[in-house]
Amino acid sequence: MAFELPDLPYAHDALADKGMSKETLEYHHDLHHKAYVDNGNKLIAGTEWENQSLEDIIRGTYQAGAVAQNGIFNNASQHWNHNQFWEMMGPGGAAMPSELDAAISDSFGSVDAFKSEFAAAGAGQFGAGWCWLVKDADGGLKVTKTENGVNPLCFGQTALLGCDVWEHSYYIDFRNKRPVYLTNFLDNLVNWENVASRM
After folding, report:
1. What is the pLDDT of residues 110-147, one digit of tens each?
2. Do 130 and 81 form a contact (C-beta atoms < 8 A)?
3. pLDDT in tens, 63-81
4. DSSP string, 103-116
5. Which residues of the chain have pLDDT under 50?
């Protein structure tokens, strides 16, 4: 089925006082994400993938271990990643739900320990990519990182939280300070209720 650019679940300036400017969201959502949608639609037109779900396209075109994935995978996966990313953030500043707090504390020792591991994964991802909090098939939680557009769907995992560490996600607001961007993301931008709903 055709890819469609979703509306942001908040205004472009809704996260500005939390460290993600209107300008960043205008470039990131309106231009970068839209490019994945437009390019993906061109690439799947007339192929076996044209009427498949986004998730099936990602799973079906992923090439394990490939340094450069094929064009359909790259655009489909980045479209899916960004769909999740917008929903995983919010202006509400809600506290972490108790069930998520307990699950994270059980898996990592504490919420602070989880945040440190997540931020280290994002800062340590060489080049473009993502860092994730995932639920494995066995129900366990772990922090992972992926290159380029690769995401947890490729490994049979459930994405609970993902952070985009491509430079276009943070360079307007944080320049080359990726670790500061990651800390700000965890402390000010995450919609923890959305994360908990994915459990």
Report:
1. 999 999 999 999 999 999 999 999 999 999 999 999 99
2. yes
3. 876 655 689 999 999 999 9
4. HHHHHHSSHHHHHH
5. none
Residue 107 contacts by C-beta under 8 Å, 6 or more apart in sequence? 114, 140, 141, 142
How far apart, in whole angstroms, are the C-alpha atoms of residue 84 and residue 124? 22
Compute φ and ψ for 133, nearest 5 degrees.
-105, 120
Contacts of 8 (CB under 8 A, 6+ apart): 25, 29, 86
Q: In what order do the strands lie in the sheet with 129-135?
A: 141-147, 129-135, 158-164
Q: C-alpha distances in angstroms, 184 versus 31, 96, 101, 109, 190? A: 23, 16, 19, 21, 9
Q: DSSP letter string over 124-138?
A: HS-SSEEEEEEE-TT
Contacts of 114 (CB under 8 A, 6+ apart): 104, 105, 107, 108, 133, 143
Between CA 63 and CA 132 the distance in angstroms is 20
Minimal CA–CA distance to 157: which of 98, 84, 51? Answer: 84
Q: What pLDDT, on the 0 to 100 scale, is given for residue 92?
A: 85
Q: What are 176's two structure tokens? A: 């080359």
pTM, two decimal places: 0.96
Half-sphere exposure of 123 (CA within 13 A, CB side): 17
Burial of residue 35 (CB within 10 Å: 0-12, 13-18, 19+) is middle
